[in-house]
Amino acid sequence: MLTLNYTYRIEPTVEQQGMMLDWLETCRHLYNRCLRDLKDWIASRKCSLYSCSINREYIMSADISFPSYLEQKRQLTQWKKTNPRYKQVHSQVTQDVVKRMHNTWEAFKNRGFGFPRYKKYGRYQSFLFPQFKLNPIENGIVKLPKIGEIKINQHRPIPDGFKVKGVRIVARARGTIWYAVVTIQCDVKVPDPLPFGRGIGIDIGLESFLVTSDNFRVEPALFFRELQSRLKVLQRKVSRKKKRSKNWEKAQLKVARVHHQISNTRKNFHFQTSHLLCDMADMIFVEDINFKMTARGFLGKQMLDGGFGQFRDLLSWICWKRGKYFQQVDHKYTSQICPECNAHTGKKQLTQRVHNCPECGYSTTRDHASGRVILQRGLKSVPTDCREWKLSGSGVLSGISYLDKCRSRNANLRELEAYVCTAKQSA
Q1: Beta bridge mates, 364
Q2: What would the mean pLDDT of 36-48 be, rounded to a whole number?
Q3: Exposed, middle or buried: residue 308 (CB in 10 Å: 0-12, 13-18, 19+)?
């Protein structure tokens, strides 16, 4: 079963926006109520069987069972009788809220840390319609139960053979920008791409956003740092307004819109770069770095501004969609090994940006050497018969023709042409 998500911009009316904001607030209250019952049950079972603490204990009858997903789903009908706000929201939307809370609980148990927390005001930003009998999108209109018809910017049609299974409504920029995430399914099975063709290794960093094993560089885009001065002015204005006043809300909205702009430009850059890399090669290898840990250092702002974790996830998705092989390799000592002779050159400081091998005399930039080492590790992990060269329809290696356009003016094109001719003869 193939499942895809298409994100479309929607334009609800003022009345519909008010209704959807009320729904989000109701869903937030329901989420917190389910979590409160869960925490109360756990607190009542914390004390020892033979003794109690000196302070106090939360006492609950031993006959009360654990508030599981099915149990709270049954209780939802009783809660709607006592709280009429729950009746205003579609029944399947409220059921999904209970499911969402228990999915968070199950993820916490599997992870071992990160206990679910209460959602404060404004932190619950989406709700889901989990199923539809018919396609709700027709002629630029999406029909949602109890909400009605909403204008949708359907910039790409739903492919033939796919059915709409669910629609998630997402609020951004403090409830002023709305999106519909449409989940579509098709009864087909798409296999994962196999390793084949030309491969490249990618070294991700701060000085250059990435450097490939072919010494192709992508300069970093300063998404947050370019608008940091603008945010500083807007946030200073927010701090001078009376909290929860109308002027304070207007100032907060301006800040939220700038953050939304930063997020969109960063994601667009990641998509474009991912497609650029897929045009270059058939196998892409990256490091398995934990970017959450690296973002806690003194370069945390720069690491978070680059969004390297998001880029790696999007790159893996683009590779799967375009039939390219994607794999993560071990990141240890990639900057300390010479790609020519595999000698260990020792630890390099961050200010040392040139790789000089004392054994073979090979010299290049540090990021280029790391990219070559990543490629070598990736090729070792795939079968030998998968490393054959893949010729495109024009008779050149896959990605080579595009790489010529991306190289700098000082690139040695003669070596590249000889490389292509040799590959043709061997093929």
Answers
A1: 355
A2: 85
A3: buried
